């Protein structure tokens, strides 16, 4: 068997079973002039998601029209400046979004990947072990590297920031992702029924649908 055949077989090989979704969310690109790059990508009509400027850093995030993946670039980011994900992601080649950080980490570890523990940031304490105590969206992370040292950032996202998705479109990449959204809606609906005196909600499908659409679009959740 020659080298071309071996590479072809490797390219067509498929995993034995599909696991947790790892959605490519952000790709970090190198730029020599942040302001010039901002002007260029803004001129393309790409959506500006973030423009964060501090005393010693400048970070930009753009998303192409209709794309589920964004680009991030910037300058002056060093360890200790991590206050938002747009800063943290610059230390990595890209960002992968998951709906459950614990499940995603466990699956990667089970596949032999040397993945970090789950962590979050707590103000002046900096990086703290474990997921965000309130499990807020965008605030729980883990990292891993490939054999060449390319570092990836895992981030738990269950509710989008306002404006980060098209509010008229609700999509789920897989049955796994849809099931996770149903579970979160189920928990929230249970609290809703408690507030209404424990009576069964005959319109629960409508409530679930409204909750799942609002959650994905980053809108106010139904009470």
User: What is the average per-residue confidence, as pLDDT, rounded to a whole number?
Assistant: 81
- The backbone outline, from C-alpha atoms, is globular
Number of helices: 6
Estimate the strand proportion: 15-25%
- Which stretches are poorly predicted, pLDDT < 50 over at least 5 residues? none
Biggest sheet: strand arrangement: 2-3-4-1-5-9-8
Number of strands: 9
In sequence order, what are the helices and strands, one letter per element? HEHEEEHEHEEEEHH
Radius of gyration: 20 Å
- Profile the largest sheet: 7 strands, mixed
What class, by secondary structure content?
alpha+beta
| First and last CA, distance | 62 Å
Helical content (DSSP H or I, runs of 4+): 25-40%
Verbal overview:
With 223 residues, this protein is α+β, with helices and mostly antiparallel strands. The protein has 6 helices and 9 strands, in the order αβαβββαβαββββαα. The chain has helices spanning 3-12, 34-43, 85-88, 101-110, 175-195, 204-217, and strands spanning 23-28, 47-53, 58-63, 70-75, 94-98, 119-121, 127-129, 141-145, 151-156. A 7-stranded mixed beta sheet has the order 2-3-4-1-5-9-8. Helix 5 packs across helix 6 (204-217). The model has no long low-confidence stretch (mean pLDDT 81).
Topology diagram in text:
Blueprint: H1 3-12, E1 23-28, H2 34-43, E2 47-53, E3 58-63, E4 70-75, H3 85-88, E5 94-98, H4 101-110, E6 119-121, E7 127-129, E8 141-145, E9 151-156, H5 175-195, H6 204-217
Parallel strand pairs: 1-4, 5-9
Antiparallel strand pairs: 1-5, 2-3, 3-4, 6-7, 8-9
